[in-house]
Write a structure and sequence with these properties.
CATH architecture of the largest domain: Beta Complex
Shape: elongated
Structural class: alpha+beta
CATH topology of the largest domain: RNA Polymerase Alpha Subunit, Chain A, domain 2
Radius of gyration: 53 Å
Strand content: 35-45%
Number of strands: 29
Helix content: 10-25%
Number of domains: 4
Number of helices: 8
Length: about 350
Amino acid sequence: MIRHWKRKLLNNALLKVVSISFGVILYFLVQDDQVRELDIEVPVTIENLGDLYVVTGDIPTQVRVRLKGRWSQVVRVLERRVRPYEIDTNLLRSSETFSFDPLRIGQLVGVTGISVESIDPPSFPVRIDVRVSKVVPIRLEMFGEPAEGFTVDHESVRYSPRTVEIVGAKAALEEVEEIFTHPLDLTGLTGDLRTRLGLRKPNVKFISLRDDGVSVEVVARERSIREVVKAVPVVVRNCNLRMACTVQPVNVDVTLEGGYSRVHAMKNQNRNDLVAVDAFYVSQQVGTQVVQAVFARPVEGIIATINPPTVSIIVSPIYSNTYGPSVPLDFIYPRDDNHGGGRDEPNSPDHKDDENNGIDG
């Protein structure tokens, strides 16, 4: 009996081993290919809308779909790209509710054996309005102040275009009366400005702008000011080398009128050579002469007024002392009111008489 069963088992042994192995492999494959669920995104597009109408409802751009099937089928879904769900607006009616078709989504997936378990959102309300257009004014927005000493006349700021055409749903356009630009910053401006600003789309759905911006030209003008510089010393120029020249008064006031930046730059400079007098002609002889004081550093765009406009130049001779520096004669020979004049010069008759009388000069 045992020999009989042994012969039965060993008959076609190789074929039996292969059959058993194949059955084991098939078992594990079936066990692994269990039912699974998968969430995918299906894009949504609008077709045949035309130029006369606009959809004003919140149409989803995509829907989340939950699929169910065996793992081998799910893998095939992951390997391919799902086609978009196209909505034909010719079939839509305003104020109705549009529902997504699970069978159609299954066709878009394109894998047999896959079922559609859920769609999110399953539907949406349909709102369709007439597409219209209108022209509204553009308002330029500015903020900030130019640099100190500069002004900007907001009324003279130029920009183009001044209007813009907007297109969209009729109900939405009724809410829009004007379009504003992005703000223009004038902070610290010191000269003319040319730039381009974008337009701000209003917070209204279902409209669009025909233009995207405006060209802007701003003119910043420097403010004219008037500043007084006090106690400016008067410099004497071209005095005769044999003469001593002094002025009265020694200081004058200078009024500067002009652009803010130039006046302040001039005011902050060294003032010792701002005002001068020319003594070339008047210093040829001893005496006092009244001359015109002049602004020594003229600058284009600045008007300088000197007060007082004239000064006196006092010219006196210089005595050359062998043992010291040259000084005016009035200093070496002080005026003696008893004699009616200054001290006698050497070799003068009065000086010799003093020597003969034993007076030490």
